[in-house]
Amino acid sequence: MPISVFDLFKIGVGPSSSHTVGPMMAAFKFTAALRDKQVLGQASRLEVHLYGSLSATGIGHGTDHAIIMGLLGERPDAIDPSIITPEIATLKETRRLALDRQVDIEFVWERDMIFHEESLPHHPNAMKLCAFDQDGRALLENTYYSVGGGFVVDQSQVDAKLEDMDTAKIPFDFNSAEELLAICKRENMSISQLMLENEKTWRGEQEVRNELWRIWQVMCECIDNGLTHEGVLPGGLNVKRRARQLHQRLIAAEQNTCLIATTFSAMEWVNIFALAVNEENAAGGRMVTAPTNGAAGIIPAVLHYYMKFQDGACERNVVDFLLAAGAIGILCKKNASISGAEVGCQGEVGSACAMAAAGLAEVMGATPEQVENAAEIGLEHNLGLTCDPVGGLVQVPCIERNAIATIKAINAAQMALRGDGTHFISLDKVIRTMRDTGRDMLDKYKETSKGGLAVNAIEC
């Protein structure tokens, strides 16, 4: 099934695309299904069942809260993040839930929010929603899987072996980097040009450009918010925000020393941009999945770096960057995974690093072969990266990990631009290696907080 760049870049809220954005969207879809079946008004009670990684780290990721907001009729791309905490507090106190903001039902948190240790077969991020009438009869039951990056599939799609009901025919379909490069060569197109033609399947060209520019504006707002807010991040680890203070120090240093944009100062700016985004994500702020929330700082930081330090950078560059990055994200999702619960953090930060490297190479004038090389370098050197968040929170090591991967992405693009696009290991082979490595990786290193830093950080 075709994947759009807008499937990878979704506006939502923190701290996790798979554990927050996806579950909220699943609950929203469940509520819509109750409406469509004309049984919404008959609902008297709900049960929420969480499985696998959603159960193991769901509280730290706000999965339970996100589902409630979806049941209230809120969408992740439209919700005001500031309403979540007071809404949850009211529900717990009153034990009443306004389903779709229309039907008042009982919801007892300790009874109706159920965490299961086992995983369901299709994917570790699983949730089941059940609605009952006043006599206890089931009105609707469905199982949803949050498969990474905010993508959600339900049981019917799984049974039909579909992850997307979209049957649109795109002009330049590709399932591998080899196919992508062959099409670019045959059509004499850049990767961003090819992606734009595919996106025109769903939207007019100007709408594609406008929507990508809007995505970029939300990314910029997220950076600005991260550079403005300070204090301690929620969740109990007492992790302090650093981006604002580091930003102020860097500005002061540049003013005091008349520092011109050097490689070293540029690196500091990039680090700060990435930290700002991921601190805002950890605080539950408005985000753009890129391709996930856990890795959301890398692409905005690299693109912001380009827009800040490249003379003549303009809106067209933003569009081309995101389109080229999207092509790599599509390959990672199709042939491996962008879900930390499925393949570890290599699927999130690794994919984002590859996407950012490709986007930067594209706007720096790279050939399609050089873009593919940049992506390969970015992903190859994140292979095996585990997902072991301390306390189940998207804070340690996630925030700093985004900053480190941002520098890797810029370096990967620079190395690729110095070559002619030929290299020993292809992107396709690296993506397959990520898939195989993820399959072999122990579950305790795949967003369960049962291994690695998550347990070694605990003081006994």
Automatic annotation (TrEMBL):
Q: What is this protein called?
A: L-serine dehydratase
Going by the UniProt record, its keywords in alphabetical order are: 4Fe-4S, Gluconeogenesis, Iron, Iron-sulfur, Lyase, Metal-binding
Q: What range does the record give for the signal peptide?
A: none
Family from the record? Belongs to the iron-sulfur dependent L-serine dehydratase family.
Which regions form coiled coils?
none
Reaction catalysed by this enzyme: L-serine = pyruvate + NH4(+)
Q: Does the keyword ATP-binding apply?
A: no
Q: Name one GO biological process term.
A: gluconeogenesis
Q: Which cofactor does it need?
A: [4Fe-4S] cluster
GO: which molecular function terms? 4 iron, 4 sulfur cluster binding; L-serine ammonia-lyase activity; metal ion binding
Domain Serine dehydratase beta chain, chain residue ranges per copy? 4-156
Q: What is its EC number?
A: 4.3.1.17
Serine dehydratase-like alpha subunit domain: from which residue to which, for each copy?
A: 187-454
This protein's record includes keyword Manganese = no
Q: Which domain of life is it from?
A: Bacteria
For this protein, the record's NCBIfam families field holds:
sda_mono
Recite the lineage of the species: Bacteria, Pseudomonadati, Pseudomonadota, Gammaproteobacteria, Oceanospirillales
Top-level class of the enzyme under EC nomenclature = lyase
